[in-house]
Design brief:
With 377 residues, this protein is of the alpha/beta class. The chain is built from 14 helices and twelve strands. The strands form three sheets. The protein has a six-stranded mixed β-sheet with strand order 2-4-1-5-6-7, sandwiched between helices. It has a three-stranded mixed β-sheet with strand order 3-9-8, sandwiched between helices. The protein has a three-stranded antiparallel β-sheet with strand order 11-10-12. A hairpin with a 2-residue loop joins β8 and β9. α1 packs parallel to α8, α2 packs parallel to α13 and α4 packs antiparallel against α5.
Amino acid sequence: MLSVGIVGLPNVGKSTLFNALTAAGAEVSNYPFTTIDSNVGMVAVPDPRLDELARVLQPRDAVPAFVRFLDIAGLVEGASRGEGLGNQFLGEIRAVDAVAHVVRCFPDPDVVHVAGSVDPLRDVAVIETELLLADLELLDKAIAKRQKQWQTSPRDHAAERDRLTRWHAHLAAGQPLAGLDLDPDERREAKALGLLTAKPLLYVANVGEEGYGGAQETGAGNPSGVALGAEAAARVSELEARGGGEVVALAAQLEAELAELAPDERAVFLADLGLARSGLERLAEAAFHLLDLVRFYTVVGGKLRAWEVPRGTPAPQAAGRVHSDMEEGFIRARVTHYAELVAAGSFQELVRHGRVRTEGKDYRIDDGDVVEFLFSD
C-alpha cells in the first residue's frame, strides 16, 4: 500500500491537511508540536472507473485503492541533531514511499510562524537541509560499517563502495539524492537504507481561502489547475520554478471543512467554488503520478476491488498484491480493460465475443486492467 509522510515546519497546516484527507480529527491548535505522536490515516483514493464498474457489475461491495498518510510532527532547524522532536520523526519518515512537504503560502497574524514570517522557499530549504544532513549521518555510519569488508574483498564490493561514496559526495555538495538518476535497483537500496532525500517528493502549497476556487488551465505558475489569489499564486509559482518535486496547491482548512460534509453536500460546495475535484483527488493523483503507479481491478467473491502497483509490474507480482498464494501458484491471468467491460455490460458478453485475453507470467499489468488470476493452491 502506498504510504506518504506529511512533513513540514510547525504551524504550516500539516494536521489540518491530515484532517482534510482522513476526517480523522487530528488535534489542531496554534502551537508548535501539537502533533506529538504521528497520526496515521487510511485514505480511499477517488476512482471514477471503480464507480463505473460497480454500476455495471453490481457487486456486493466495491473497495477503492487506499493511500496511507502519516502526519509527522513539525521539524525545525537542527532536527538532524535532535533539536525539537527531530530524531524520532526523522525515523518515521524513513518508512514511507513518498514525502508530501506542506509549505505555508498564506499570511495569517493569528497563526504563529516559527520563523516570524511567511517565506515558502526559506521553509523548503530548512526542511531539505535537515533531511540532507540526516542522510549524510546515516551514510557516514553505513560506510564506516562496511570499510573492513570493502578492504578485505575489494573486488566483490567495488560496486557498492562506488555507489555509496558517490551518494555521499552528492549529499556533501548539498544536493538531495532525488537529483541523481537512480535506477530501480539503486532506488530499492536507497529505500532499504532509509535515505530520506532519495524519496519521491511533492510540495503541498497550503494557500489561503482568498481567491481559491474555479478551475483553471494547468501550466507554469498554476500547476494545480485552481484559481488562486495573487499572493498565493506568486508563492506557488516560486515553488514550481524551484523544482525538486511536483506542486499541488490547496486550501487545507477549506478541504478539512469539505471532508466533514456528506458526499452530496460536498459536491454542491465544490460546484459553488467552481471546482471539479477536491484537494484529496488532486493530491492522490499527484502521489500516483509521482510513484508511477497504475491501478487494476479484480472481482472475487462478489467484491470489486482496485489495487495499485508500479507501472510494468508482471502479472504474478500483481497477483501477490491480492494474496501471496496467487503469486506462488500463478498459472495465468484472464484480462480485459475496464472501458471494454463497461461498454459490454458483463464478463459473459465479453467472453461470448472472444474479447477476454489470456496472459502468462510475462504479461505486464496495464492501467485500467480488470483481471482474474488463475492459480494452483
